[in-house]
Design a protein that fits this description.
Blueprint: E1 6-12, H1 30-48, E2 54-59, E3 74-76, H2 82-94, E4 99-103, H3 112-124, E5 128-132, E6 138-144, H4 163-174, E7 178-180, H5 190-201, H6 209-217
Parallel strand pairs: 1-2, 1-4, 2-3, 5-7
Antiparallel strand pairs: 4-6, 5-6
Helix pairs in contact: 1-6
Length: 228
């Protein structure tokens, strides 16, 4: 597949204290949670640079706020809830690309190969592709120009463990062929963060140098190259 066909839209918020990673506040300060959010996004975007698809950023910022600086083409999210924002952002990308997918920034160790697999499935065998998250949601949704429909994102109980099942039901109601990717963990809670630190310590998944450096600074993982 060529880069002109496929586009990944990364939905992100600016790394502002008190507005991101709020479920980690308590274990972390608001400022630390914002730093963590920022390095998650940096690692994801760095990893996608060399992939065989285009990447765009959809920023969740207020109407009077400037878009944060980025090396990627970016636009402002529109919509009252996550479903509307996903539909509008993916629809926008589909005016220029044939196959599109959306992810958030809660998976700092998401490999580009999984996104490429999603596009391969969309190109050959399905209408909708979903990446199940361990918490009952999904970390990726991919659609085509023919399969996108507002119904796929409507009446979903966002931020609950029912998101994936409700989305699969919407797909069935539309008669859409669905394929699923491997299941991954979000990093939303302190326990999630500790499991991420363990994966990085054990060398699992793709390199995440910015995340690893910050967690090493906080003493959550060993400093690379250091022998005690």
């Amino acid at each position: 597949m060529g880069t002109v066909r496929c586009c990944l839209v990364v939905f992100a918020k600016a790394a502002r204290p008190g507005r991101v990673k709020t479920r980690l506040i308590g274990e972390l300060t608001a400022e630390e949670a914002a730093r963590l959010h920022g390095v998650f996004l940096e690692d994801i975007l760095e990893r996608m640079k060399g992939a065989d698809f285009q990447t765009r950023l959809a920023w969740g910022v207020g109407p009077q706020e400037r878009l944060p600086p980025s090396a990627f083409e970016a636009f402002r999210q529109k919509g009252e809830d996550l479903g509307e924002r996903l539909f509008e952002g993916l629809s926008r990308a589909l005016t220029r690309f044939e196959l599109v997918a959306a992810i958030g920034s809660d998976h700092p160790d998401l490999p580009a190969s999984i996104v490429e697999e999603a596009f391969e499935k969309l190109a050959s065998s399905c209408d909708v592709v979903l990446g199940p998250a361990a918490d009952g949601g999904y970390y990726l949704i991919g659609v085509t120009r023919q399969s996108i429909h507002r119904h796929l994102f409507s009446a979903i109980e966002w931020s609950t463990d029912r998101v994936l099942n409700q989305t699969l039901k919407r797909c069935r109601e539309r008669g859409a062929r669905v394929e699923e990717l491997t299941s991954l963990e979000d990093v939303d809670t302190p326990d999630d963060l500790r499991r991420l630190a363990l994966r990085l310590t054990q060398g699992e998944g793709p390199p995440s140098p910015n995340t690893r450096s910050l967690l090493a600074e906080w003493g959550m993982i060993p400093v690379q190259g250091r022998r005690d």
